[in-house]
Amino acid sequence: MTIEITPQELHQLLQDGQAATGVQLVDVRRAEEVAIGTLPGAHHLLLQELPQRWQELDHTLPTVTLCHHGVRSMQAAQFLRQQGFTQVQSLAGGLDRWSQEVDPTLPRYRDCHEPYKAVFHPAADGFNDHGTNWHRMGTVSGRAITNGNSCPRSDAHLPCSAPRPNC
Known about the structure:
This protein has 167 residues and is α/β, with parallel strands linked by helices. The chain folds into two domains: 4-101, 3-Layer(aba) Sandwich (Oxidized Rhodanese, domain 1), CATH 3.40.250; 112-167, no CATH class. Helices cover 26% and strands 19% of the residues. It has six helices and eleven strands. The strands form four sheets. It has a five-stranded parallel beta sheet with strand order 1-5-4-2-3. A hairpin with a 4-residue loop joins strand 7 (119-121) and strand 8 (126-128). The radius of gyration is 16 Å and the shape is globular. Residues 114-167 have low confidence and may be disordered.
């Protein structure tokens, strides 16, 4: 089983009544994002809480993790596979792609936290977040910032006034 499922593939799976009842949808976004919209029947389980709460999920069911653009859901899917989930996939492109390709009634939004990403550190007992659950991800002076080891204090390149990590 591949680690990603496309919006079209998930849509087909959910249209098949018998298969749809056995699919576990897990939305790993923040509560304010879920309030904007999610897929019917999705279980909200914040990505940062996954290391403490993954046992709430049924590992025998096919599971699809959801987020805004597919980054956090990929991290969740990889984590769940490490916990023994064999039928877990991440929604490729996230719910934003779903709303573009499958259901335009699902609201799209611009998330001010997009320049950050949660990073799972198994040895550090969970998601290391420098106090805010997010690391910077973007560019500064043309070079990519992709992990917590390169966390500049300058916020000039950020697109909005989102809370900043405590680096």
